[in-house]
Amino acid sequence: MYRPKLAHVVVVLVMLSVLSTAALIHLIWQRAAGESIEEIVASLDAQTAGSVRNDLSRTLSLVSSTAEIVRSIFFQGAINADDEVKREFLFLSLLREQPSIDWIGFGFPDGRFFGSHATADGRIEMVEIGAARAGELRPLRRDLYRPIPGDIFFEERNKAESAYVVLGAPWYRLGKENGEPVWTVTNVLPNGFEPAMVLSKRVVSFGKFIGVVMVAVSLRRLSEALKALELPALGKAFVLDSSGRVLATSQPSDGVMAAHFSDFPAADAVASAAAEAVAANKVDAFRVVVPNASLGPVFVSSSRLPFENWRLVAATPRSTFAGGIDKNIRRVALVVLAMAALAAATAVGFANFLFARPLARLAAQLRAVERFSLESVRHHPTFLAELNDFSQALKRMAVGLSAFARYMPLDVVRPLVEGGIEPKPGGALCEVTVMFADLPGFTELTERLGPGVEPHLTRFLTIAVAAVHAEGGTVDKFIGDAVMAIWNAPGKQPDHAARACRAAVAIRTAMHDDPPIAAGENAVRVRIGINSGTALIGNIGSAERLSYTAIGDAVNLASRLVNVAKERGVEIVLSDATMRELGAEPMTRPLGLATVRGKARPVGVHTIDQPKVRSAGGSDGNGDYNGGDARLPATQALCR
Q1: Global pTM?
Q2: Taking every annotated instance into account, which residue ranges of this chain make up the domain Guanylate cyclase (predicted)?
Q3: Please, how many CA atoms are within 13 Å of residue 626, restricted to the half-sphere of its CB?
Q4: Disulfide-capable partner of 578 in 39, 75, 435, 532 (CB 3.0 to 4.6 Å)?
C-alpha cells in the first residue's frame, strides 16, 4: 500500500490553502472592480452619446436654417436665382460663416447647378454646371477662393465638362417632389465622390417652381467630431445608418474608412467586437460585453441618434480601465502565496517552469497540428533536453506536413491528418463538375523562350489555382501546362457547375488582364473545357502510392473539350451536361454539336462569351469583334 511522505502531504495542503485563499481574494476584488468598471464605462458611453447627439442636432439645425435662409430669399424675390453675382455673394457669405457646412447649392429645372463648396484644405470654390442636351457632358466652371481676414482672395478659374446630372440626383428629385424639407445620404456630389448628408428644399416663387436648394455636410466632418471626443485608449466610436453601413468612425483602420464592419481588417479587434455585438443584438439600443481573443472583454454600447434611424456604437476594451486593477489583484495573490508557503511556491514554480508550461506549449502545438494550423507551430527551447528535442521534432513534423500539403488538396490532407479518411485505395461514384484549363501554344512557347517560359507558366498556374479556390473547387493535379480541378468533391456543392463556370471566367479575365507573353498573342490566352457527370472519386493507386482524384468518362470528356475549344476558336467550352446543371439562366452561347474522340455520338457544346469592356474594339478571344462596352448577360449571371 502506497503511503505518501509527510513533506508531500504538507506541500499539498499548503498549496491548497494558499490557492484557495488567493482565489477567494481574487474573486472578491475582481467582482468589485468589475462593477466599478461597468459603471465608469456606462457613464462614459452616456456622455459620448450625449455629446454626439448634441453636435449632430446643432449641425442639423444649422443646415436646416441655412437652407431656409436661401429658400426664403429666393421665394421672396430678394435675389433672383439667375442673378449670378448676388447669388454667388449670398452662397459665399453663408458658407464662410458656417464652417461645419460643406455645400450650399441650387439646382435649376433645366438641369443647371450652382453651388459653393468648402474644400478640405480650407479654400472655397464656386461650382457652376450648365445645361446640356441628353447624353452630352455639361459645361463646368470652378472659381477657387482663398479666405483672408475679413475678405476672400480669388485664386483661379477652371473650365471643364461635368458628367453630374442634377435632375437625376436623389436630393433634387426628392426635394422637387416634396413640399417639406427632405434629407438624403449620398455618395456623389457635383465635385465627385463625397459621402454626405444633404437637406434639400423646393423653392417656389410667385406660384412657379424655380428649383431646389441643397445644403450638405460631409460625413468626413462627422468622423472628425467622433475623433475629437477623446475616447478612452483603444476605444472606438462608429455611426451606423439604419442598414448597418458605417458612416463615420473615430479611428479608421489603416487610415481607410470602411463602408461596413466586414470591410475592417481582421487585426482591428475593437471593430470586430463591435461587429459581433451589432450582429447579435437586433435592437438599436443595448450595452453588452463581448469576449475577444486579443483584447479580452470589450464593452459595446449602441444608442439612437436624432437623424434617419442612425445610431452610435461605442466599443471600449475592459483592459483600458482594468489593466492596473487586474495587475494589483495578481500582485496580492502572489504576496499571499509567498507569505503562506515560500518553499511550496518554490517547488511549484520549479515544476511549472520545468514541466507544466513546456508541456502546455507542446499540447497547444499538437492541437495546432491537429487543426492543420501548421504556420503557428514554433520551436520553444526548454531547459530539459527531452522536452527540447520533442519541440524540435514537432517543428520538423509541421514543416514536413506543410510541404506535404503543397502536393495534395488541403480538403484531402486535413481529414487524413485528423483521421477522417483512411489512406487506402478506394472510391465512390459521385456527381461532379470537372474543369481542364490549358495554356495555348505552350510547346511553341517553350521552344522559343526555353527556361524563360517558367515565370509565364507559374503565373498561369497561380491564376488558375486562385480562381478554383475562390469558387470552392479542388485542384486535382497539374498536367504539364494544364490544370485539372473538380467541384462537389470531397465536399458537397449543389451549384458545382456554376462555380466551375465562374472560375473559368475568372481565369480568362485574369489572363486577358495580364500583358501578352509575346507579340501577336492578344486573342487567345487560355483553353478551358468543363463537363458535369458521374465520376469515380477517391484514393486511386496502389497500397504504396495513392492519389486523390476523379476518373471516368466525365473527366475524359472535360479534357477533350479543351481541343474542341481550339477547333471552335473560343476559350471556354462546356458540355450539355454542364448546361443542364446551370439551369435556365441565359449564361452561355450554343456552339452546336462537336465530334469528340472516344464518344460515339456528337456532343452538344456551348461557350461563355468574353465581356465587351473596351470601347476601342478588338477581338475578344472568341473570334467575335468587340466594338462596344456592353456586357453580355451570360457574364453578368456568372459573376454574381
Answers
A1: 0.46
A2: 433-562
A3: 20
A4: 532
